[in-house]
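Support request from a user on the community tier.

User writes: "When I paste my structure tokens into the form, the page sometimes reloads and wipes my input. The last time it worked, I copied everything first. Here is what I submitted, just in case something in the input itself triggers the reload:"
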């Protein structure tokens, strides 16, 4: 979660890294609507008009108008960009499956089409699959704190890549993000306060109503799991089927509903430990399969030593623009997608080992329904920093980094500093859902967790299953971030049965990935 979104290879489109049926008419309201989601004033019915997307006519596009502030439904409105792929099974359509690709900051109008083929075939047959750019993001009304692309690029170049190393870089990093917060506050402070997870959950309910679906079908990955859990507790009677894949523990995200955060969000989640364990698996498997892994030193132990030597060398002498911190950040982000991410990572590490600057990956040139939007860091930051409490003193992060690194090595440095921009962020969400998380839902929720995930630990999936009122945990024994993007026929079969007829896997069910890392051709 919370990674910059770039246009990469098709199989890695969501590494960074949910709308509807026949939208020409909308429901004016539903019985019992005021009983859930708080006592918000009545919201005008949403109406969307679908058209074939200009960039790819296999998809339909629409624009939704929703209130900026649901407490003032007839005040300022904002736009949501929405994309749909119709169900492929003629006459067998069940309804709409809403998809959120995570982040926060993941643009659904880009990442759903990029990853459409990963959805289980039976699900694609029976459901329209719909996604949207959440408020503040991408092609929707977006947070943009710069007057021009050149200004944004200049700001990005003013800070170290990956995370800061040493006193001077720490000051450069802190100054850069303090400046970003000031620029954002000057441009649209009202928007910054209304891009929360609760706000997006209310948007999702409006989209569900407009689709004509009496209850919600939803797949959320990464940050999309906390969005799903929020929806489930705001609107517990409106769930038909909900799968949460690669989870954030709700009490970790909200700091147990306390604003006094002593640890950053990612350390509360345990992302440092999970990334370190996943990196250890990468090095062990690489070392044991030298024919398939370019970075292998012939054994797991020798490969671990080689990686440590490489990072020490890069601390002293970067290879071109590849510093120690940039390499660590690239390593952790590249663990998200096993195929081809792990193999490509091994090649880059070997190039660095040989003193050569790695070449950038070829871009994905497949046609997308919407243009690639501006996706500056401030978009993810507005949601994350406004919603999840983090320490407000920039000076404490170095101490926290050293403590985490003593336990988890390089991964601890990366994940500690990933939350530091929140220390000087200027806004807190006006509507922030902090619990409870155990409201009884109309249907049970399926929670999927992966054993070795570099971002959202398996323990967070266990916590999500405990904290929700009625949830079933399905374990993926493999690697990478999200089971959706690291395919398992076993996971897909269970998800398909659950979405189509509500059948849950047996308690304790475990599934393997289809293709392990560094498999022989």
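"...and here is what came back when it finally went through:"
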């Amino acid at each position: 979660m919370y990674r910059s979104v770039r246009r990469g290879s098709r199989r890695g489109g969501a590494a960074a890294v949910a709308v509807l049926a026949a939208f020409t008419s909308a429901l004016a309201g539903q019985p019992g609507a005021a009983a859930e989601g708080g006592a918000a004033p009545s919201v005008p019915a949403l109406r969307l008009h679908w058209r074939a997307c200009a960039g790819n006519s296999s998809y339909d596009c629409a624009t939704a108008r929703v209130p900026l502030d649901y407490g003032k439904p007839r005040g300022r409105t904002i736009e949501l960009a929405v994309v749909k792929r119709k169900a492929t099974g003629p006459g067998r359509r069940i309804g709409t499956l809403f998809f959120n690709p995570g982040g926060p900051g993941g643009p659904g109008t880009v990442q759903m089409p990029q990853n459409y083929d990963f959805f289980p075939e039976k699900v694609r047959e029976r459901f329209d699959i719909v996604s949207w750019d959440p408020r503040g993001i991408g092609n929707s009304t977006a947070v943009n704190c710069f007057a021009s692309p050149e200004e944004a690029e200049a700001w990005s170049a003013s800070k170290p890549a990956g995370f800061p190393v040493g006193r001077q870089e720490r000051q450069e990093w802190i100054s850069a993000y303090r400046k970003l917060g000031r620029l954002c506050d000057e441009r649209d402070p009202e928007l910054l306060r209304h891009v929360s997870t609760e706000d997006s959950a209310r948007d999702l309910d409006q989209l569900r109503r407009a689709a004509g679906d009496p209850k919600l079908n939803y797949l959320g990955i990464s940050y999309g799991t906390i969005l799903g859990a929020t929806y489930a507790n705001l609107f517990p009677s409106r769930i038909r089927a909900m799968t949460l894949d690669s989870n954030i523990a709700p009490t970790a995200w909200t700091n147990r509903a306390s604003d006094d955060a002593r640890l950053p969000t990612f350390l509360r989640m345990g992302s440092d430990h999970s990334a370190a364990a996943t990196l250890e698996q990468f090095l062990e498997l690489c070392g044991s399969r030298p024919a398939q892994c370019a970075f292998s030193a012939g054994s797991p132990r020798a490969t671990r030593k080689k990686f440590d030597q490489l990072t020490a060398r890069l601390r002293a002498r970067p290879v071109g623009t590849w510093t120690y911190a940039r390499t660590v950040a690239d390593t952790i982000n590249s663990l998200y997608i096993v195929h081809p991410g792990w193999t490509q990572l091994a090649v880059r590490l070997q190039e660095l080992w040989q003193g050569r600057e790695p070449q950038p990956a070829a871009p994905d040139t497949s046609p997308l329904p919407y243009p690639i939007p501006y996706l500056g860091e401030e978009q993810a930051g507005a949601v994350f920093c406004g919603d999840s409490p983090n320490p407000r003193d920039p000076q404490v992060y170095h101490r926290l980094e050293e403590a985490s690194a003593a336990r988890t090595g390089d991964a601890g440095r990366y994940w500690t500093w990933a939350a530091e921009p929140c220390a000087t962020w200027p806004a807190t969400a006006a509507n922030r859902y902090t619990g409870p998380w155990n409201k009884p839902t109309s249907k049970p929720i399926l929670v999927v967790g992966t054993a070795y995930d570099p971002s959202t630990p398996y323990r967070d999936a266990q916590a999500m299953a405990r904290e929700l009122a009625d949830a079933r945990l399905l374990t993926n024994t493999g690697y990478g971030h999200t089971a959706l993007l690291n395919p398992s026929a076993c996971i897909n079969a269970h998800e398909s049965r659950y979405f189509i007829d509500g059948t849950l896997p047996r308690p304790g069910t475990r599934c393997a990935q289809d293709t392990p890392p560094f498999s022989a051709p």
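Agent notes: The reload is a front-end session timeout and is unrelated to the input. The longest strand covers residues 77-85. The first helix runs from residue 108 to 114. Escalated to web team.
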